[in-house]
Amino acid sequence: MDEVSSSKENSTSDEPSPTTASPSATQSLPHLTPSGAAHMVSVSSKPHTIRTSIAVGTVLFSNATPISLIRSNSLKKGDVLSVSRIAGIMAAKKCPDLIPLCHPIMLTHVGVELSIFDTETGHGGIQIEAKVQCEGQTGVEMEALTAVMGTGLSVVDMCKAVDKGMRVQDVRVVLKEGGRSGVWKEEGWVSVVERE
Length: 196
Known about the structure:
This protein is α+β, with helices and mostly antiparallel strands. The chain is 24% helix and 24% strand. The protein is built from five helices and five strands. Strands 2-3-1-4-5 form a five-stranded antiparallel β-sheet, with helices on one face. Helix 2 runs antiparallel to helix 4. InterPro entries: MoaC, MoaC_bact/euk, MoaC_sf, MoCo_biosynth_MoaA/MoaC, Mopterin_CF_biosynth-C_dom.
C-alpha cells in the first residue's frame, strides 16, 4: 500500500519504510508476537494526536448503462451516489467489527466523495475518496480503506442489474497524517475535491 515516501521524516517511523528493499532485523510486523502469534497491538503509550487518513478506489463499469442511469437518477434502487456515500460512512464506523485486530476508535469525521468519470477507451466509472479523522492513539488507515470498500460495494449492489462486469479496483491509502511518522502522501495524488 505504501509505495513512495514523500519526505525523509518517515525514516523514523515505527512502520517499515516503503522504499526499503528488504526488511532489517529490527523491523517486524507489529501484529505478531515474537513467537509469531497474532495479537492486538498496544497503543497505550502513544500520544493522543489528530490523525487523518485518506483512501481512494475506483468502480469501473463494463458498459455505458450505469453512468447514464446514475446521471439521470433512474436506477430502480434509487440515488446511487447518496446511498453509497452513506454506506461508506457506515462501513468506516464498523471497521473493528470486520477487521479482527483493529482498535475500536472514536471517529471525529468521516467524509466520502464520489466523482463520475468518463474514459475514452472504456465505459467510465466512479472515483471514490474517503477521508477519516480521529483524535487518538492510533491511525485510521483501515477505517478509510473500509469506507472506500463499503462505498464501492454499494455502487456494485445498486448497479448490478445493468452491469454484471463491474470492477472495484486500485483501493489504497494516499494520505496519512498524525502520530510519530508525521505526514505521508502518495506521490502525484490530487484529491477529487481539488480537481473539481
